[in-house]
Amino acid sequence: MKGNFYSARTALISALAILAVYTATIGSLFASTSTDFHRLARRILGGEGFWDYLAIDPQARRLYISRWSHVMVVDADNYQVVGDIPDIHGVHGIAIAPEFGKGFITEDEANRITIFDLRTLKKTATATTGKGPDGIIYDASSKRVFAFSGDGKVTAISAATGEAVGSAELGGRPEFAASDGRGHIYNNLEDKSDVLQIDSRTLRILNRWPLAPGESPSGMAIDAVHHRIFIGCRNRTLVVMNADNGKIVTTIPIGDGVDANRFDPGTQMVFSSNGVGTLTVVHEDSPDSYSVIANVPTIRGARTMELDPKTHRVFLVSAQLGPQPKTPHTPPSMVPGTFELFVYGANSEPQAPSNR
């Protein structure tokens, strides 16, 4: 009996020791992926045109950057420009459908999307949308691309054929959207401060949920596993919403001028890129609990971003800007040749060298 007691005690001590090592390791990993978030690299890309959304093809390691009259294509690992898609009329967003080898670009001035080949970057087709298409996403569950237009319309395009297969009126001015991969599309209405839950196959609006205390929403990201939506609002508030019932879980303070949000399922991090010149980094401790890790200094104008799910790095872009005009929705002037890519992350591994 005594021998069994000491054997059990020894086993317990060993188990506790292993648990302690495991806990310390996890704690160290969490610390390295959260509190040490900083700029890893910057690279002057140059070129003309203001910017809006960014998109990434993680498998092909390509980062797509909208530049109004063209789309700049950058290697996601060495940050070199590797291609360009020219002659675009007012690009806002890019969606990637890798299983079909296609990309989709919204053209604000042409009221259409342009479809291109992911391998060659050659334009292959177009599809008509509502007036002033802006945000665009690919939903893998329905195999459709959804383009949201300034006239309050969503247009669904078959990723396989490139043809428009339906549209719906949203009852407000849409901003960005997200897919839960289970048949639902979520979109925020900037002028109504609402979030819509839309059936991705019928385009029927299933629910319309208020965002208060969030106002004038812009960016959106989703934790599809835990059914949480993250909505960046221009009253300096990040709203966390339950994707099943629309209830507000919590709100988090962010910087001024948010235009994009991202969620990293690998690190449980939520990001808000704020045009004032900060990147708010938040950790999802649980689906209902969140901790602000840092407000990392970036650069004025870095309001949009993309996340690389493979490396957990965040890409932002901006340029040297003139004074902000007093006229609403008018962008400041941009100093020619100063457009830059900024890369942020938590590791200290050697990175591609900056060129300034």
Distance between the termini: 72 Å
DSSP helix count?
1
- Beta-strand residue percentage: over 45%
Unreliable runs, pLDDT <50, ≥5 residues?
A: 1-34, 348-353
Features:
356 residues, mainly beta, four-stranded antiparallel β-sheet, 1 helix, globular, disordered N terminus
What does this 3D model show about the protein?
There is one protein chain. The protein is mainly β. The chain has one helix at 2-32, and strands spanning 38-44, 54-57, 62-66, 71-75, 81-85, 91-97, 102-107, 112-117, 123-128, 133-139, 144-149, 153-158, 164-169, 174-179, 184-189, 194-199, 205-210, 217-223, 228-233, 237-242, 248-253, 258-264, 269-274, 278-286, 289-297, 305-308, 313-318, 340-345. The strands form 7 sheets. Strands 1-28-27-26 form a 4-stranded antiparallel β-sheet, with no helix packed on it. The chain has a 4-stranded antiparallel β-sheet with strand order 2-3-4-5, with no helix packed on it. It has a 4-stranded antiparallel β-sheet with strand order 6-7-8-9, with no helix packed on it. The longest helix is centred in the first third of the chain and has 31 residues, at 2-32. It starts with a helix and ends in an 11-residue tail after the last strand. Residues 1-34 and 348-353 have low confidence and may be disordered.
